[in-house]
Amino acid sequence: MTTGLDDGVPDDDCTIPSCLIYKSDAGTRWAYHNAPYTLLDKVVETATGRTYNAYYQQKIRNAIGMNGGWLPNGFNNVLYSNARSMARFGLLLLNKGKWDQTPVLTDSNGYLTWLNGKSNFMAPIFQTVFPGMIVPNAPADMYCALGKNDQKVYVVPSQKLVVIRMGEASGSPALALSGFDNELWGRLKTIIGY
Questions:
Q1: What string of DSSP letters covers 31-77?
Q2: pTM for the full model?
Q3: Sign of the torsion angle spanned by Cα atoms 19, 110, 156, 91
């Protein structure tokens, strides 16, 4: 998210050259922008000699017993699966990339996950640094993968907990984090008591 490409284009999923507009030098500006990481699919394909979906199936899906696959959705490539399979992925993250003590992902934290326990954060669309945690009602060590249309994988190492949210979008599709997240974790807090 620090490519320096302009996130103010009409479609931040667009991967054609006319949509990839220089705004600043790479590493100097953070902006949520889908197109740059979607372009990495081709890098993986070139490096492995397989389609992105075939590589994912071999390295992750089949290794941990997931189902589903990556399908084109406009310019984007979206993982379609079910809640049980996404929970398996969450358990893989919780176990630091190991499945039954077998390394599946050797560096599984930080890539396209949002870290909760920081003193400030940025959110999609805004170039503002907001004070506090992303989800104040959630444990500080919670991190989450936030997918298309509010599909979410929350991981809380201190609680050995994985929470999956699937279904229709809960609010503004432009905001990956919403009041829904804080309300959900407020309710979980009363049940779990962390």
A1: ---HHHHHHHHHHHHHHHSS-HHHHHIIIIIHHHT---EEEEETTEE
A2: 0.90
A3: positive
Q: Is the Cβ–Cβ distance between 88 and 66 less than 8 Å?
A: yes
**Buried-exposed string 70-95: b where 16+ CB fall within 10 A, e elsewhere:** beeeebbbbbebeeebbbbbbbbbbb
Q: What is the pLDDT of residues 115-140, one digit of tens each?
A: 999 999 888 778 889 999 999 999 99
Which residues does residue 164 pair with via DSSP β-bridges, in sequence order? 153
Contact 146, 156 (CB under 8 A): no
User: 141-174 burial string, b = 16+ CB within 10 Å, else e?
Assistant: ebbbbbbeebbbbbbbeebebbbbbeeeebeeee
User: What mean pLDDT do residues 60-67 have?
Assistant: 96
Q: What is d(CA 55, CA 44) in angstroms, rounded to the nearest whole number?
A: 8
Nearest to 35 by CA among 68, 4, 70: 4
109 falls in which pLDDT band (50, 70, 90)?
A: low
Question: Do residues 169 and 148 touch, judged by C-beta distance below 8 A?
Answer: no
